[in-house]
Specification:
CATH topology of the largest domain: Alpha-Beta Plaits
Number of strands: 4
Distance between the termini: 71 Å
Strand order of the largest sheet: 1-2-4-3
Largest sheet: 4 strands, antiparallel
Number of helices: 4
Order of helices and strands: HHHEEHEE
Number of domains: 3
Strand content: 15-25%
CATH class of the largest domain: Alpha Beta
């Protein structure tokens, strides 16, 4: 009798152990499947984000490419609008102050960078043509610091002060040259001293430059 009870208990114990093993294995499989499902769902969401970003980049690229032809056509039409005369009446193929094609005229009028020496050279040439003497010219040669304005869409001022001397009539010519210059000069203050034949004029004003546009090509990390 005792032997039968022991055998029965052993069978129950074995069955319980088997049940525990089955439950443990089933639990492991369920947990594994849940974790794998979460990982797959996360990967699917990430891939969808990547695909969405790629589609947006491709759409922008197609738009940019289609804009190139229009931009080139507009540029050529502007440059070649008149083969005998530019927008200010000069010779497109000449080398005078008012000569050059329309694109060069625009670049001369509104340079793409802060270049104080070039501006000073322009003023010196006008002074020479007007037969006046430059006594002093000052400003700030800070092309490097002005690089912070490269993304600006508005013209950036370049202040200057120049002192010239000469006869009254020649100084008038100099002022007229500044007013008629391709490059815009905005005069804020004039200070005259001396007489008609020997006059000194201090001019305070500013001109401008237009920062060149840059292509901001970047790589984006999708998270």
């Amino acid at each position: 009798m005792a032997g039968k009870v022991s055998i029965k208990r052993a069978m129950i114990t074995k069955a319980n152990a088997t049940m525990v093993s089955v439950v443990a294995a089933a639990s492991f499989v369920v947990v594994f499947c849940l974790v794998a499902s979460f990982i797959l769902i996360g990967q699917l969401g990430y891939q969808n984000k990547v695909i969405s970003k790629k589609k947006a980049a491709l759409a922008q690229l197609k738009t940019d490419i289609s804009s190139v032809s229009s931009l080139v056509s507009s540029y050529n039409a502007f440059v070649e609008a008149n083969q005998t005369q530019n927008v200010i009446g000069g010779d497109p193929s000449g080398s005078g102050d008012r000569d050059g094609d329309n694109a060069q005229i625009v670049l001369d009028a509104l340079p793409s960078k802060y270049d104080f020496p070039a501006m000073a050279t322009s003023i010196e040439k006008m002074a020479k043509d007007s037969k006046v003497t430059i006594e002093n010219i000052s400003g700030t040669d800070d092309e490097l610091s002005q690089s912070a304005s490269k993304d600006s869409s508005a013209p950036v001022p370049m202040p200057f002060t120049v002192t010239i001397s000469g006869s009254y009539s020649n100084i008038k010519k100099m002022i007229s040259s500044l007013e008629r210059s391709i490059r815009p000069f905005q005069i804020s203050q004039l200070h005259f001293t001396g007489g008609e034949s020997d006059m000194t004029l201090e001019i305070t004003g500013q001109t401008y430059y237009q920062p060149a546009k840059t292509l901001n090509i970047k790589t984006e990390v999708v998270q």
